[in-house]
Amino acid sequence: MVNKKNQIITIGISGASCTGKTTFASLLQKIFPNSTILHQDDFFKKKEQYPIDPITNLANGECPEALDFSSFINSLYNLRTSPTFIKSFKSKKNHLIDNIESDELNDLIKELNDQVQNILSNNNNNEKELNFVIVDGFLLYINSDVIKELDIKIFLEADYDTLKKRREFIYGKKIPDRNWVDPPNYFDQMVWPNYYKANNHIINRYVLDGENDDILKDLIVLKSGNLSILSKNIKNVVNIILDLIKVK
């Protein structure tokens, strides 16, 4: 439920590597004023603390055990409950965002921002300033404590071939500001198996171990795709957020 006292709305965006989560989050941040992004990637443990994959003998940064969930949940809780913390919060590092050059998308973002600003300014029930916390992470929906902190839950979905092609394009070569390059067969041996294992309850709709079906009953699954699909998804999510604002 929305935190009515503090006027904070949390929006989770999850999915496999290279589904465009961070780009999606950055576009929402441009549309909604007073918004900040919490990146789950900021909460990786030190590499020497990663479990070793028994098949590849590589440090496994694709599994839940590679993340400091306690610190992540603590930051999410603080953002959800404290507008003061939101104002001072900063991401720990720069995050890779697709710089999509599209006049059509830019026009859409401006149009949606105008729409949001107009609704917020005319929302008579909104006595306090609304804040938006956008949570970007590849493992958001495996932990009930995380799920319960999210008002809106989005999962970006793409098939194996699409994800493999994108991963190899993005992580198959050295690029500025990033040291990591995927070793040979990394997608097949590490990325895809760990993604499927962690998100099997979503892929097969939606039973989470130890929880009832209701915990993810409002999960919004969107296809990750081309620019046209991205524009459609952005409009859809903005309307969902605005509907939530209107009923507050």
Strand and helix map with partners:
Elements: E1 8-15, H1 21-31, E2 35-39, H2 69-81, H3 83-88, H4 103-121, E3 131-136, H5 144-147, E4 152-157, H6 160-171, H7 186-198, H8 200-203, E5 220-223, H9 227-246
Parallel strand pairs: 1-3, 1-4, 2-3, 4-5
Helix pairs in contact: 1-4, 4-9
Here the CATH topology equals: Rossmann fold
Please identify the top-level CATH class: Alpha Beta
Spatial extent as radius of gyration: 18 Å
Number of domains: 1
Order of helices and strands: EHEHHHEHEHHHEH
Number of strands: 5
| Helical/strand content category | alpha/beta
Q: Percent helix among the residues?
A: 40-55%
The CATH superfamily is identified as P-loop containing nucleotide triphosphate hydrolases
User: What's the architecture in CATH terms?
Assistant: 3-Layer(aba) Sandwich
Strand content: 5-15%
Q: How are the strands of the largest sheet arranged? A: 2-3-1-4-5
Distance from N terminus to C terminus (CA atoms, Å) equals 10 Å
Number of helices: 9
For the largest beta-sheet, the strand count, sense and barrel status come to: 5 strands, parallel
Unreliable spans: none
User: Mean of the pLDDT scores?
Assistant: 88
Organism: Rhizophagus irregularis
Keywords: Coiled coil, Hydrolase
Coiled coil: 102-129
Protein name: P-loop containing nucleoside triphosphate hydrolase protein
